[in-house]
Amino acid sequence: MKTIPSAQIDHNILKKGIYISRIDDDITTYDIRMREPNREQVMTNSAIHTTEHIFKTYLRGTEYADSIIYFGPNASRTGFNLLARRLSDSYCIQLIRDAFQYIADFWGRIPNASPSECGNCLEHNLPQAKEEAKKFLEVIRDWKKEDLAYPAANTEA
Description:
- The chain has 4 helices and 4 strands.
- The protein is an alpha+beta fold.
- A hairpin with a 5-residue loop joins strand 3 (68-73) and strand 4 (79-85).
- It is globular, with a radius of gyration of 16 Å.
- The two termini are 31 Å apart.
């Protein structure tokens, strides 16, 4: 069984940021970590849900929308995963930054959140999603390709 870097990372040292979780042929999985695991309160389901709706709406409007395979929350409720095909790391960092800015600036009806479009239309919170986006933008403001590696565990005894 192939193991992935995010399954091997010491979550006790993982900080907020954007990391490469795995690369499979031409598909890169980005770990968008908005909370420090086991040290911070997890995101609320309603903030996650709203962030997901608005982020996906933003992605669909980009010129490389067909290169986005998936965007969704991670199981620990500490962030999201973005899977992209044949896009540079620098482009994906900027795409993530732009999407979170879009969420921070967003006003109006949450996209695709009506009962006929959403299986959990009552669990949304736009103010929380906007606040989450603003906080995360501070973390990734100067993020660059060199920052995409997971932190190494301190092996000094």
